[in-house]
Amino acid sequence: MRMNKLRWGVLGTANIAVSKVIPAMKLGNWCEVAAIASRDRNRAEQAAQSLGIPKAYGSYEELLDDETIDVVYNPLPNHLHVRWSSAAAEAGKHVLCEKPIALNVAEALELLAVRDRTGVKIQEAFMVRTHPQWLGTRELIRAGRIGQLRSISGFFSYFNPDPRNIRNQPELGGGALMDIGCYPLSMSRFLFEQEPDRVMGLIERDPELGVDRLTSVILDFPRGQSVFTCSTQLAPYQRMQICGTRGRIEVEIPFNAPADRPTRIFVDDGSDLFGTAVETREFPICNQYTIQADLFSQAILQNVEQPIPLEDAVHNMAAIDAIFRSTQSGVWEIPKT
Question: Is 99 a catalytic residue?
């Protein structure tokens, strides 16, 4: 392993990988994208050529057999996350795996066991967790800027009715909660810095596709509550509101933070309803995917704890499982790991 940059290999040519993550990783100080694999060698070669990646493989196994690869990025469809993250770990590779880490908590626990057995680092790719706007928001909460945090509300939606899209195929782990609802869930846990005692969910499923297209959730934390709605068939929109006993923080673009302009949060002391006292805090231009890959690479190189422990992914998955159970039972459900 070279000590200046880690050599990354990418499993698959998913759109998020080729359009966002790989270009961002190539800007990193600690990352070198050295190989990409696809089950279609031509697709791998085309992606490698367009992105300036030295090696292209016609199977995932070939990439995992490459002893020069230090860490693997896994952007495969949800149902393949645990299978290929486990295979990478067994091959001695560290793994950054797209969210959600698994299809359910049982799968996530299997991956945790693989990590413990192999000794590699495995992290869920919640890039928002290391974005400066979210770190800044949590610091304001910790410093008492809004008093005691008591309530969080979120909304995340886009419109995609395409039956061919993997996000609309239930057998592949599709649906609104798994695709985008996991974000406000994860960030609610991040800000409260604790796990929900119980959860409740309500789902409307697409009658033809079978996936949840409109999902609303209540999370009951020891110190407060979080509610959010997510949808794959509504006008695109996203916001997070964080309310305390003495103020409020609004995150303007919480999840798809732009890489070409500053991000903003709004801090309100609640002195009036017209927002005359709102303070705008701006965070410099950055790419959250570059930050994510660099911080994970540094944790590997320096042999320190990674930004998001795998145990956090297990807890997020446990909450998702409980939400799905609640949509069936109609009552509060307790997340179980």
Answer: yes
Largest CA distance in the chain: 62
- When divided into structural domains, the chain yields a total of 2
| Environment class of 170 (CB within 10 Å of its CB; exposed 0-12, middle 13-18, buried 19+) | middle
Average pLDDT taken over every residue of the chain? 97
CATH classification at residue 112: 3.40.50.720
Asked whether residue 313 is assigned to any structural domain, the reply reads no
Backbone phi, then psi, for 224, in 5-degree steps? 165, -160
Q: Is 318 within the bounds of a domain? A: no
Active-site entry in 55, 93, 99, 121: 99
Q: Which residue has the tokens 């413990």?
A: 116
Task: Tell me if residue 333 falls in helix, strand or coil.
Answer: strand
26 lies in the same domain as 147: no
Supply the pTM of this predicted model: 0.96
Query: 94 - beta bridge partners?
Result: 71
3, pLDDT greater than 60: no
Q: Which helix (H) or strand (E) holds 62?
A: helix 60-65
Task: Give the pLDDT confidence of 196-241 residue by residue, as tens digits.
Answer: 999 999 999 999 999 999 999 999 999 999 999 999 999 999 999 9
Residue 254: give the domain boundaries. 132-285
